[in-house]
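Q: Sequence in, structure out?
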Amino acid sequence: MTNPAAPPRALPGLERQNRAYWTGGAEGLLLIGRCGACQVFVHPPLPRCPACGDRNVEPEAVSGRGRVASFSINHQAWLPGLPVPYVFAAVELEEQTQLYVFTNIINSPVDQIEIGMPVEVTFEAHEDVHLPMFQPRGGAR
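A: Exactly. Output:
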């Protein structure tokens, strides 16, 4: 199912390792890999834990809450029909220090985005892919 109001996006290729991350939004879940041996969250999706080397990395639902760690305001429409300006950000998830999701911040004027701003996940449906986007916690500003 595609959201007709969603802007055009370059979509990721779905593979065994990343499928849960890109499709979990269909169920409203942000799924991040977690090592069964040492419990470290692993993102982007990898076949082995970078902390301990174990291969038991499985997707686990996280809260979807975090904070803006860094961002840029982009004025280049890389795809026809992509509205500008838009915010590309590193969001640090609250489950683990330095657990970052690189994403867009939506539902907020770009001049109101700040480092440290609390955000929450929302999903944008495109075919089988549900892109994790983030918005100010509590909704639009």
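Strands lie at 30-35, 41-42, 57-62, 65-74, 86-93, 100-105, 118-126, 129-136.
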